[in-house]
Protein backbone atom coordinates (compact mmCIF):
# COMPACT_ATOMS: atom_id res chain seq x y z
CA UNK A 1 0.00 0.00 0.00
CA UNK A 2 1.42 3.40 -0.92
CA UNK A 3 1.41 6.64 1.06
CA UNK A 4 -1.18 8.16 -1.28
CA UNK A 5 -3.87 5.74 -0.16
CA UNK A 6 -7.38 7.07 0.31
CA UNK A 7 -8.49 6.96 3.94
CA UNK A 8 -12.25 6.71 4.37
CA UNK A 9 -13.84 6.95 7.80
CA UNK A 10 -17.38 5.59 7.73
CA UNK A 11 -20.36 5.59 10.05
CA UNK A 12 -20.24 9.24 11.12
CA UNK A 13 -23.17 11.12 12.68
CA UNK A 14 -22.21 13.52 15.49
CA UNK A 15 -21.62 17.03 14.14
CA UNK A 16 -18.63 17.94 16.33
CA UNK A 17 -17.06 14.50 15.89
CA UNK A 18 -17.48 14.93 12.14
CA UNK A 19 -15.59 18.22 12.24
CA UNK A 20 -12.79 16.75 14.34
CA UNK A 21 -12.33 13.70 12.14
CA UNK A 22 -12.53 15.74 8.94
CA UNK A 23 -9.65 17.88 10.21
CA UNK A 24 -7.35 14.84 10.47
CA UNK A 25 -6.58 14.92 6.77
CA UNK A 26 -8.79 12.00 5.76
CA UNK A 27 -10.03 11.80 2.18
CA UNK A 28 -13.56 10.41 2.33
CA UNK A 29 -16.21 10.34 5.06
CA UNK A 30 -19.10 7.91 5.05
CA UNK A 31 -22.68 8.49 6.25
CA UNK A 32 -24.97 5.48 6.57
CA UNK A 33 -28.55 5.87 5.35
CA UNK A 34 -29.68 2.37 6.30
CA UNK A 35 -32.36 2.45 9.02
CA UNK A 36 -31.29 -0.87 10.56
CA UNK A 37 -27.75 0.35 11.17
CA UNK A 38 -26.79 1.67 14.63
CA UNK A 39 -24.96 4.42 12.70
CA UNK A 40 -28.02 5.49 10.74
CA UNK A 41 -28.21 9.18 9.86
CA UNK A 42 -31.93 9.84 10.21
CA UNK A 43 -33.84 12.24 8.00
CA UNK A 44 -34.38 14.44 11.05
CA UNK A 45 -30.67 15.18 11.05
CA UNK A 46 -30.67 16.68 7.57
CA UNK A 47 -31.79 20.09 8.79
CA UNK A 48 -29.54 20.12 11.85
CA UNK A 49 -26.24 20.79 10.15
CA UNK A 50 -25.07 17.30 10.98
CA UNK A 51 -22.83 17.28 7.92
CA UNK A 52 -20.92 20.57 7.95
CA UNK A 53 -20.94 22.67 4.80
CA UNK A 54 -17.36 23.79 4.18
CA UNK A 55 -18.12 25.52 0.90
CA UNK A 56 -17.80 29.05 2.28
CA UNK A 57 -15.16 28.97 4.99
CA UNK A 58 -14.38 32.25 6.74
CA UNK A 59 -11.04 32.76 8.43
CA UNK A 60 -9.74 29.46 7.16
CA UNK A 61 -7.26 27.53 9.26
CA UNK A 62 -5.14 24.69 7.87
CA UNK A 63 -7.58 22.21 9.44
CA UNK A 64 -10.54 23.96 7.84
CA UNK A 65 -8.95 23.77 4.42
CA UNK A 66 -8.13 20.09 4.92
CA UNK A 67 -11.68 19.36 6.04
CA UNK A 68 -13.17 21.18 3.07
CA UNK A 69 -11.57 18.64 0.73
CA UNK A 70 -13.20 15.61 2.34
CA UNK A 71 -15.52 13.81 -0.06
CA UNK A 72 -18.89 12.73 1.32
CA UNK A 73 -19.97 9.13 0.80
CA UNK A 74 -23.57 8.05 1.31
CA UNK A 75 -24.05 4.36 2.17
CA UNK A 76 -27.30 2.75 1.01
CA UNK A 77 -28.65 -0.81 1.24
CA UNK A 78 -31.24 -1.76 -1.39
CA UNK A 79 -32.82 1.67 -1.06
CA UNK A 80 -35.30 3.21 -3.46
CA UNK A 81 -33.49 5.26 -6.12
CA UNK A 82 -35.56 8.35 -5.32
CA UNK A 83 -34.44 8.19 -1.68
CA UNK A 84 -30.82 8.05 -2.84
CA UNK A 85 -31.30 10.99 -5.18
CA UNK A 86 -32.92 13.03 -2.39
CA UNK A 87 -30.04 12.38 -0.02
CA UNK A 88 -27.40 13.12 -2.63
CA UNK A 89 -29.06 16.49 -3.09
CA UNK A 90 -29.75 17.25 0.60
CA UNK A 91 -26.38 16.12 1.92
CA UNK A 92 -24.26 17.16 -1.09
CA UNK A 93 -22.88 13.64 -1.45
CA UNK A 94 -19.95 13.07 -3.79
CA UNK A 95 -20.03 9.26 -3.83
CA UNK A 96 -22.89 6.78 -3.58
CA UNK A 97 -21.90 3.49 -1.91
CA UNK A 98 -24.31 0.64 -2.63
CA UNK A 99 -24.12 -2.09 -0.01
CA UNK A 100 -27.02 -4.33 -0.98
CA UNK A 101 -28.09 -6.44 -3.95
CA UNK A 102 -28.45 -3.57 -6.40
CA UNK A 103 -28.29 -4.62 -10.07
CA UNK A 104 -26.58 -2.85 -12.94
CA UNK A 105 -29.84 -1.61 -14.49
CA UNK A 106 -30.64 0.23 -11.26
CA UNK A 107 -27.07 1.54 -11.02
CA UNK A 108 -27.02 2.83 -14.60
CA UNK A 109 -30.42 4.51 -14.19
CA UNK A 110 -29.31 6.08 -10.90
CA UNK A 111 -26.21 7.54 -12.53
CA UNK A 112 -28.25 9.00 -15.40
CA UNK A 113 -30.62 10.62 -12.90
CA UNK A 114 -27.82 12.13 -10.82
CA UNK A 115 -25.30 13.10 -13.49
CA UNK A 116 -25.24 15.91 -14.52
CA UNK A 117 -28.46 17.46 -13.20
CA UNK A 118 -28.16 16.64 -9.48
CA UNK A 119 -24.40 16.11 -9.09
CA UNK A 120 -22.10 16.30 -12.13
CA UNK A 121 -19.56 13.49 -12.27
CA UNK A 122 -21.08 11.66 -9.29
CA UNK A 123 -19.15 8.49 -8.39
CA UNK A 124 -20.71 5.13 -7.54
CA UNK A 125 -19.04 2.48 -5.38
CA UNK A 126 -20.35 -1.09 -5.06
CA UNK A 127 -19.59 -2.98 -1.87
CA UNK A 128 -19.02 -6.72 -2.22
CA UNK A 129 -19.04 -9.04 0.79
CA UNK A 130 -15.99 -11.29 0.65
CA UNK A 131 -15.04 -14.59 2.21
CA UNK A 132 -13.81 -16.71 -0.72
CA UNK A 133 -12.42 -16.22 -4.21
CA UNK A 134 -15.90 -17.02 -5.56
CA UNK A 135 -17.20 -13.96 -3.72
CA UNK A 136 -14.50 -11.86 -5.36
CA UNK A 137 -15.57 -13.08 -8.80
CA UNK A 138 -18.94 -11.35 -8.37
CA UNK A 139 -17.19 -8.11 -9.33
CA UNK A 140 -17.59 -9.17 -12.97
CA UNK A 141 -21.30 -8.41 -12.76
CA UNK A 142 -20.52 -4.76 -12.01
CA UNK A 143 -17.32 -4.07 -13.92
CA UNK A 144 -17.87 -1.09 -16.21
CA UNK A 145 -20.94 0.09 -14.28
CA UNK A 146 -19.30 1.46 -11.10
CA UNK A 147 -16.31 3.67 -10.36
CA UNK A 148 -15.03 1.80 -7.31
CA UNK A 149 -15.46 -1.42 -5.40
CA UNK A 150 -15.32 -1.79 -1.65
CA UNK A 151 -14.37 -5.29 -0.48
CA UNK A 152 -15.90 -5.95 2.94
CA UNK A 153 -16.20 -8.96 5.24
CA UNK A 154 -19.09 -11.32 4.49
CA UNK A 155 -21.39 -11.16 7.53
CA UNK A 156 -25.08 -10.78 8.31
CA UNK A 157 -24.47 -7.14 9.20
CA UNK A 158 -24.38 -4.24 6.74
CA UNK A 159 -21.25 -2.30 7.65
CA UNK A 160 -19.36 -1.87 10.90
CA UNK A 161 -19.27 -5.55 11.85
CA UNK A 162 -15.66 -5.31 13.03
CA UNK A 163 -14.86 -8.66 11.42
CA UNK A 164 -11.88 -9.25 9.12
CA UNK A 165 -11.52 -11.39 6.03
CA UNK A 166 -8.47 -13.00 4.49
CA UNK A 167 -7.07 -10.36 2.13
CA UNK A 168 -5.11 -13.00 0.22
CA UNK A 169 -8.32 -14.02 -1.58
CA UNK A 170 -8.10 -10.67 -3.39
CA UNK A 171 -5.32 -12.17 -5.48
CA UNK A 172 -8.28 -13.47 -7.50
CA UNK A 173 -9.33 -9.92 -8.38
CA UNK A 174 -8.12 -9.12 -11.88
CA UNK A 175 -10.58 -6.34 -12.70
CA UNK A 176 -9.79 -2.81 -13.84
CA UNK A 177 -11.95 -0.98 -11.29
CA UNK A 178 -10.03 0.43 -8.28
CA UNK A 179 -11.10 -0.73 -4.83
CA UNK A 180 -10.95 0.06 -1.12
CA UNK A 181 -10.27 -2.47 1.62
CA UNK A 182 -12.77 -2.73 4.44
CA UNK A 183 -13.73 -5.16 7.18
CA UNK A 184 -12.57 -4.77 10.76
CA UNK A 185 -9.46 -2.68 10.10
CA UNK A 186 -8.23 -1.44 13.47
CA UNK A 187 -5.38 0.37 15.24
CA UNK A 188 -3.21 -2.76 15.28
CA UNK A 189 -3.34 -3.29 11.51
CA UNK A 190 -0.78 -0.74 10.36
CA UNK A 191 1.83 -3.34 9.35
CA UNK A 192 -0.79 -5.49 7.66
CA UNK A 193 -1.87 -2.50 5.57
CA UNK A 194 1.69 -1.52 4.67
CA UNK A 195 2.43 -5.06 3.52
CA UNK A 196 -0.72 -5.47 1.43
CA UNK A 197 -0.19 -4.92 -2.27
CA UNK A 198 -2.59 -4.99 -5.19
CA UNK A 199 -2.39 -2.78 -8.29
CA UNK A 200 -6.04 -1.73 -8.01
CA UNK A 201 -6.14 -1.08 -4.26
CA UNK A 202 -6.41 2.68 -3.66
CA UNK A 203 -7.36 2.92 -0.01
CA UNK A 204 -8.89 1.68 3.23
CA UNK A 205 -12.22 2.02 4.98
CA UNK A 206 -12.28 2.54 8.78
CA UNK A 207 -15.26 2.25 11.06
CA UNK A 208 -16.17 0.31 14.19
CA UNK A 209 -12.66 -0.48 15.46
CA UNK A 210 -12.11 3.25 16.05
CA UNK A 211 -15.34 3.90 17.93
CA UNK A 212 -16.07 4.68 21.55
CA UNK A 213 -19.77 4.08 20.76
CA UNK A 214 -21.70 3.52 17.51
CA UNK A 215 -21.12 6.47 15.13
CA UNK A 216 -18.70 8.23 17.50
CA UNK A 217 -15.00 7.96 16.60
CA UNK A 218 -11.98 8.17 18.90
CA UNK A 219 -10.19 11.12 17.29
CA UNK A 220 -6.81 10.54 18.92
CA UNK A 221 -6.82 6.85 18.03
CA UNK A 222 -7.58 7.77 14.42
CA UNK A 223 -4.92 10.48 14.40
CA UNK A 224 -2.21 8.10 15.59
CA UNK A 225 -3.26 5.39 13.15
CA UNK A 226 -3.30 7.75 10.17
CA UNK A 227 0.17 9.07 11.04
CA UNK A 228 1.53 5.53 11.26
CA UNK A 229 0.08 4.22 8.00
CA UNK A 230 1.21 7.32 6.12
CA UNK A 231 4.80 7.29 7.39
Q: DSSP strand (E) fraction?
A: 15-25%
Are there runs of 5+ residues with pLDDT below 50, and where? 44-48, 55-59
How many strand segments?
Answer: 10
Strands side by side in the biggest sheet: 1-2-3-4-5-6-7-8
Helix-strand sequence: EHEHEHEHEHEEHEEEH
Q: Describe the largest sheet.
A: 8 strands, parallel, barrel
Q: Work out the helix count.
A: 7
Taking all Cα atoms into account, the compactness measure Rg is 17 Å
Report, as a whole number of angstroms, the end-to-end distance: 11 Å
Can you describe this structure?
The protein is an alpha/beta fold and 231 residues long. Helices cover 25% and strands 20% of the residues. An eight-stranded parallel beta barrel has the order 1-2-3-4-5-6-7-8. The chain has a two-stranded antiparallel sheet with strand order 9-10. The N and C termini lie close together (11 Å).
Write the layout of secondary structure elements.
Blueprint (H helix, E strand, L loop, with lengths): L5 E4 L5 H8 L5 E5 L29 H7 L2 E6 L4 H11 L3 E4 L5 H11 L8 E8 L2 H4 L11 E6 L25 E3 L8 H6 L5 E6 L4 E3 L2 E2 L1 H11 L2
Parallel strand pairs: 1-2, 1-8, 2-3, 3-4, 4-5, 5-6, 6-7, 7-8
Antiparallel strand pairs: 9-10
Can you give keywords for this protein?
231 residues, 10 strands, alpha/beta, 8-stranded parallel β-barrel, 25% helix, 7 helices, globular
In short:
It is built from seven helices and ten strands. With about 230 residues, the protein is of the alpha/beta class.
Amino acid sequence: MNNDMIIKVCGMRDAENIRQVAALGIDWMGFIFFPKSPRYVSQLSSNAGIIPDYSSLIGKTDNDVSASKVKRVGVFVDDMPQNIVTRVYNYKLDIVQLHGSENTVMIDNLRRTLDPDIHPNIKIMKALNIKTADDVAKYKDYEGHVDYFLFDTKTQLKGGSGEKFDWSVLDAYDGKTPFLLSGGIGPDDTERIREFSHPQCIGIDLNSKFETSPAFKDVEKLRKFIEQVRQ
